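Consider one such protein record:
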Amino acid sequence: MRTRRTVLLVAALTGTLLAGCSKPAPKTQAPVAPSPSASAITASGLPTLPEARQDLTAAMNRLGTTTYKFAVAGDYWDKQKFRASGVHDPKAHRLSRTTVISGGPDAETAKLVLMDEHQFTTTGSSGVWTHADLTAMPANNEYRHIDAADPIGLGRFATTLTTVRRTSPHAFQGNGFIEFRRGEIAYLPLGAPVLVGTGRGFVDFTATTDGQGRITSIRTELKTKNGTLTDTVTFRDFGIEVTPSKPAGARNVPASYER
């Protein structure tokens, strides 16, 4: 469960920059600002910052106005693999997802339902669901498995963009800043954020949009001391009916665990 993962992830990242340096960055270090050339026009005539960043942010924000399916595939800590799939209704604050970690000590299948600020989780084939009121939990609580305000991670990702350029009418590339705070879930993998650890660094990405200007995929690369984590999230079936229901018989997380 998350307690075991947190120990592994902190141990894997403590004392290193995510970008691969030998010492952690000072806590006061701010995200790196884009270079002066980032706002220039590229040789292809396509704009970079700030216009491209605004366009990409707008494309991600459009997902907040519709329902959709999402799927994630890629890497997890310690050379393990990660997959996820689910549905999201951002207006109704409803989300349902299944995550699968395979190929190592954290191997696990987990299901999660989010209804407003209420989280319901189950693992394996036990069929036993646990309920947690996220309003009563601090961000670094080990029983918190999702950020109710930003369950897909796009909101946090958008605020960290440092360099963005448009590579075609429906494609972007660039990088963003990421900081892992001990015990808190970061915004990766986009679509189903689950990574916990410590450290800070940069995330390279490519992204695509559709004809309506909605984000359809984002591929991220996070370089760590132990290798590169590459994950891709895709979005489809916009406007689909999303009807996750409250799992029956869910057990409440003990009040002593919510602190």
